[in-house]
Amino acid sequence: MTFRTWCIAGCLVLVGFIGIFESGATDVFLEATRPDFQKIPLGVIGIQNSGGPEWLGGRIEEVLKADIRRSLVFSLVDLPSIGIKVRDVGTGPHPVFKQAKENGVSVLVWGKAGAKEGDKDADVSMDGFVYDGESDEIVGGKRYVGSSSVVRLMAHRFADELVFRYTGEPGIARTKIAYVSEQGTARELFVMDYDGYEPRQLTSDGFLNLMPRWSPDRRFLVFTAYRNRNTQDIDMIELATGKRWTIVSLPGLNITPALSPDGNFLAFASSHEGNSELYKLDTRTKAMQRMTTHASGDLSPSWAPSGRELVFASDRSGGPQVFLMSADGTNVRRLTFEGDYNAAPAWSPRGNWIAYVCRTPRKEYKLCLITPDGQKRVQLTAGPGVEDSPSWSPDGRHLVFSSTVDGKSQIYMINADGKDLERVTFTGTHNSAPAWSPAS
Amino acid sequence: MRATLSQWSIPMLAGLLLVTMPGCSKKSVQSGGDTQSSQSGMAKGAPGAGGPGGPTSGGVSSNFPDTSLAGRDGSGGLSGLDKNPGAERVNGGTMTAKLDPSQSGRQMDEIRSEQAAADAAGLRDVFFAFDSFVISEEGRQSLSRDAEWIKSNTGSQLRIEGHCDERGTSAYNLVLGEKRAKAARNYLVELGVSANRLSVVSYGKERPFCRDHNESCYAQNRRGHVIVKSGK
After folding, report:
1. Does A160 sit within 8 Å of B95, measured CB to CB?
2. What DSSP string runs through A159-213?
3. Do B106 and A262 make contact, defined as CB atoms within 8 angstroms?
4. Do residues A271 and B170 touch, judged by C-beta distance below 8 A?
5. Of A80, A111, A417, B75, which has the fewest beta carbons less than 10 angstroms from its beta carbon?
6. CB A113 within 8 A of CB A52
7. What CATH number did the domain enclosing B106 receive?
8. Which helix (H) or strand (E) holds A238?
9. Can you give the pLDDT of all 440 residues of chain A as single tens digits?
């Protein structure tokens, strides 16, 4: 596996161009959750090897540190820079605890990892421990066992436990990203870990499988599919088994499905009554309700986390613009007024922002954010490259999207404040349409 | 719905099997790949368990599993830090899907034979301006020639594919592609081609003819592509 730095070389080009342009408001950096949230300083002493493959402890430590950084809950402290050079504190307590506390480090993490020598199929184990400066005690730890193929998952799981311990929320280190990857001339669905590792192919029908969206329980994807070259449908696939079936096959286009946060409704666009309109299918009664009535195209519905409203794209004002409506199809109102092309809206799971693709005055397709009341608008990315398909992390702190900034379309991650742009996919001829899973 | 009964019976049977299986309540951590928590369990309705009789009419499937989060406690399957932690087994997730690449090859063969038939017939495509589905004078000339061929080859069925360049969103380009394909179809019908010989489909920006990021490439990708359908 290739070692990836935290977005240093490849992304610098784009980061260099990133400007935050605001209309109205003055605060440049958005806190995706609470404005008063202070990151918790956390130091990783080390994950020591106690037998097993040489790379083991280092691999876990590397994955854990990256997860901690991306959590945006902790700030990762460079311990050697505050004079803590110890790499192993056994089972603690240890004099460096006091030293860390005096230097403002609230949490220390360390551990060990190992496997039985000489048996490459032996289970790997990982022990992790947590010292909390506030209570001045070792608050506990975790012990994981599993095959050597799941060491990244052990680190992800430990990172999520840390986030859970300090925020009460499960963290995003075990989330997944579904996406579309070009295979020859076909586009097939894949799913990978949120950090780009462990990609798995889900479909292999040799044609077009597009724009996946997760079910709230993470067991299924709904997506835009082509049963054959002549007929286009909405399909569902079960991740555990790969079983796939058609759920909407009306004449014409059937695209951009999105399950409501409670899983009880499927919103989608269909052109079976002439032009593309939005419909809502009750997944229990199978009753279908038409939500929009307009001679122009309506598409790309995305649910508010409350399930009471949807945001969608429509070209009823000429070029595509972003609109809001109540879940019963009433109270339709235009949200975006800046620029002549705004589309692919995605409502944050926190509810406070809607991300979308905006065309700039220089005709570049970039990411923008707008508040649901339309009061605040921010352009999140800038520079060359066509951006598409923003999708929020379940914690509302990150977005994943596709961009052609490096030539071929690849998948990138960015914080909701425009910082920490990170390329997530590195191989293949075309990766697009990322969809971030709900938290587990 | 055009799916056959046998296509539907497999997920249904599998669904029944899953529902009747004893619950897997052993402490087992499906870390990272955990597509289900122990709370949601398997009994909540695998595909096929939701509907009594497979697909319904009206283009909407009755086969819709319960994907709601009812019964979840929000812990994300985490058990918290422990002063004396017991060993938790980490599994590589539940994704065991086996891919069947046989379909993939069949599609490629059919695409090639359809393209060859269109080339042999000398069919011409119609090209569009940026973000437009208006047929130009040049496009009308191309479609007029196509109409002559179609009218003199009465046994043929045709498909008009709407294509777009890479700019703009995938979703919006699918809608735009359909408008382009329908514009081309409508003009052919005006020229006297029977509408039931023409089908339309949009591929948006997903099957580009040219892959560079410049206007000459974009111009090639904004088209209504006229194809002679093979058999099915």
Report:
1. no
2. HHHHHHHHHSS--STT-EEEEEEEETTEEEEEEEETTS-S-EE---SSSBEEEEE
3. no
4. no
5. A80
6. yes
7. 3.30.1330.60
8. strand A232-238
9. 444 444 444 444 444 444 444 333 333 334 445 556 789 999 999 999 988 888 999 999 999 999 999 999 999 999 999 999 988 888 878 999 999 999 999 999 999 999 877 777 789 999 999 999 999 999 999 999 999 899 999 999 999 999 999 999 989 999 999 999 999 889 999 999 999 999 999 999 899 999 999 999 999 999 999 988 899 999 999 999 999 999 999 999 999 999 999 999 999 999 999 999 999 999 999 999 999 998 889 999 999 999 999 999 999 988 999 999 999 999 999 999 999 999 999 999 999 999 999 999 999 999 999 999 999 999 999 998 999 999 999 999 999 999 999 999 999 999 999 999 999 999 999 999 999 999 97
User: Which residues, including other chains, have CB under 8 Å from residue A427's CB and lie 6 or more apart?
Assistant: none
Chain B residue numbers with beta carbons less than 8 Å from the beta carbon of A389 are 169-170
Asked whether the beta carbons of B160 and B207 are under 8 A apart, the reply is no
Q: Are residues B110 and B74 in the same domain?
A: no
Among chain B residues, the shortest Cα distance to A388 is held by B169
The structure tokens listed for A153 are 């998952």
> Parallel, antiparallel, or unpaired: how do β-strands A209-214 and B158-163 relate?
unpaired
CB contact under 8 A, A357 and B169: yes
Secondary structure (3-state) at A136: coil
| Alpha-carbon gap, residue B32 to B74, rounded angstroms | 16
Q: Which domain holds residue B92?
A: 1-97
Do the strands A176-183 and A107-115 form a parallel or antiparallel pair, or are they unpaired?
A: unpaired
Contacts of A241 (CB under 8 A, 6+ apart): B14, B96, B97
Question: Among A154, A231, A283, whose Cβ lies nearest the Cβ of B64?
Answer: A283
The number of folded domains in chain B is 2
Selection from A435, A322, A392, A235 nearest residue B172 by Cα:
A322
Residue B93 near residue B32 (C-beta atoms within 8 A): yes
* CA distance readout (Å), A333 to A304, A317, A367, B108: 15, 11, 21, 44
CB contact under 8 A, B82 and A149: no
Pull the structure tokens for residue A292: 């929009």
Going by C-alpha positions, the residue among B128, B64, B93, B169 that lies closest to residue A247 is B64
DSSP secondary structure letters along A286-349: --EEE----SS-EEEEEE-TTSSEEEEEE-TTSS-EEEEEETTS-S-EE---SSS-EEEEEE-T
- Per-residue tokens: A402: 């596709």
Closest approach of A267 to chain B, Cα-based (Å): 13
ipTM of predicted assembly, 2 dp: 0.88
Of the candidates B91, B213, B230, the one whose C-alpha atom is nearest the C-alpha of residue B156 is: B230
Name the closest residue on chain B to residue A268, using Cα atoms: B171
Cα–Cα nearest to B175, from A278, A324, A358: A278
| Predicted TM-score (pTM) of this structure | 0.86
Distance CA A64, CA A132 (A): 18
Per DSSP, what are the bridge partners of residue A125?
Answer: A114, A145
What's the CATH code, domain A38-167? 3.40.50.10070
User: What pLDDT, in 10s, does the model give residues A110-148?
Assistant: 999 998 777 777 899 999 999 999 999 999 999 999 998
**Residue at which a domain ends, from B97, B122, B140:** B97
B67 and A439: CB-CB below 8 Å?
A: no
Strands in A124-132's sheet, in edge-to-edge order, are: A74-77, A40-49, A107-115, A124-132, A137-146, B87-89
Question: Contact B172/B216 with Cβ under 8 angstroms?
Answer: no
In CATH terms, the fold of domain A176-436 is Neuraminidase (2.120.10)
3-state secondary structure of A64: helix
